[in-house]
Structure formats: C-alpha cells, structure tokens
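Example S7 (structure tokens).
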C-alpha cells in the first residue's frame, strides 16, 4: 500500500485527496512538524528538502519501491500511474499543467511567505505588504480563470484543482479575504463537497 508521509497542512492534504479521488488505498504516516521529524535522517533519505508530503510506493517502476517528494511531482506520478485527474483532452491537459505549476511555483510560496511574515514577533511591513499583495494578485488570476471555467483545466476536475485547494481553503492565513473572489469561493465549495475530499479531510482512525 502507498505510504503518505503526512501532516494536515496545505501541501499535505493534497495527496490523500488525490488518492481518495483515484480510489487508491493508502496509509498515512504522520510527521510531527513541530518536533521537526521532517529534518531527521530517515526522513531526509526520502526528501533531502526535509518537508512533507512524501510518498513511498512499494510497487514503483520495475516493481521496486520508489519514493516521491514535492507535491506537484507526487500528483503527476499518481495521475500517470492510476490514470485519472488529468484531462484526456490535449488542450485541457496543457491548462492543467499550467495551473499546477502556477500553484507550486506561485501561490504556495507566496501564501506561505505572507503567513510567515504576518506571524513574526517583529512587524516587517515590507515583507507583509509584498507577500500579501502578491497572494491577492495570484488569487485574482484564479478568480478570472474560474469565472470562465468550472475547473482550472476547463471541464475536467484535475490535479490543478487539488493543488490549489490545499492553500485557498486557508487563504486567510495569508491575509487573503475570499469575499472579494466569489468564483474562487464557489469553486472551493464545489471541491469541499466532493465525497472523496471529505474522506481525505476527515480520515477515520483505523483503531
Ligand atoms: N514545494 C513543496 C512544499 C512543501 C512544504 O512547504 N511543506 C511544509 C508543510 S505545508 C513543510 O513540510 N514544512 C515544514 C518545514 O518547512 O520544515 C511541495 O509542494 O511539496
């Protein structure tokens, strides 16, 4: 069974959501970030960057185990292996890739930095202003896209939606008020109400 090294964070939740959507069994391996378990040698052997999420698939290429880090890489690995969450239409596939990379290269880092600066004991206004403004600008890009399309790729729910959902559902962490982005709010609601997403966000303890 695929092991998901996990904490219930914006990047962490992406992976159980994808696995639930794909109908693939998995087990969560909790990683206590507060205790810095992600910096321990056994974890760094899986991800030298010392961050969750990571998966270990016992049935990787050639039937041998493989580990994968970086949430975007994990989502694409799962979509490829299990044949879902990427549109079959070639143009929609391009949109899915665009918005997936837009998330991991833009929304994730900017929201993360905005939230970090907002919570420092010393108020560093230039940092807060810069990263909040950028987070809002990126959210406006999503708003424009979601006013013209049901899902980020177009008509198909995809890895791009899952990637963005992790961060947009906690947008206030970055000082982004979603009242100004109604299409993003509707899209969040549509994702949150999917049964697979609810299973992933509210895992039933195994014992
Ligand atoms: N680009 C990475 C970001 C991963 C990341 O920032 N993970 C956070 C949790 S959301 C983490 O592990 N933080 C702990 C740390 O930085 O030590 C990805 O998309 O997987």
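Recovered sequence:
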């Amino acid at each position: 069974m695929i092991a998901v090294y996990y904490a219930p964070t914006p990047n962490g939740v992406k992976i159980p959501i994808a696995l639930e959507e794909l109908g693939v069994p998995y087990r969560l391996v909790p990683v206590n970030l507060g205790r810095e378990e992600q910096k321990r040698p056994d974890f760094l052997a899986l991800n030298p960057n010392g961050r969750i999420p990571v998966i270990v698939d016992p049935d990787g290429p050639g039937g041998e185990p493989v580990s994968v880090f970086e949430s975007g890489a994990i989502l694409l690995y799962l979509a490829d292996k299990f044949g879902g969450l990427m549109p079959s239409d070639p143009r929609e596939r391009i949109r899915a890739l665009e918005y997936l990379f837009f998330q991991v290269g833009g929304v994730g880092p900017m929201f993360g930095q905005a939230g970090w600066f907002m919570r420092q004991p010393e108020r560093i206004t230039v940092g807060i202003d810069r990263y909040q403004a950028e987070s809002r600008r990126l959210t406006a890009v999503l708003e424009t896209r979601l006013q013209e399309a049901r899902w980020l790729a177009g008509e198909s729910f995809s890895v791009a939606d899952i990637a963005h959902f992790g961060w947009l559902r906690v947008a206030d962490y970055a000082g982004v008020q979603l009242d100004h982005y109604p299409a993003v709010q509707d899209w969040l609601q549509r994702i949150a109400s999917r049964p697979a997403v609810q299973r992933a966000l509210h895992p039933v303890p195994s014992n």
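Notes on this example. The domain at 90-195 is CATH 1.20.1050.10 (Glutathione S-transferase Yfyf (Class Pi); Chain A, domain 2).
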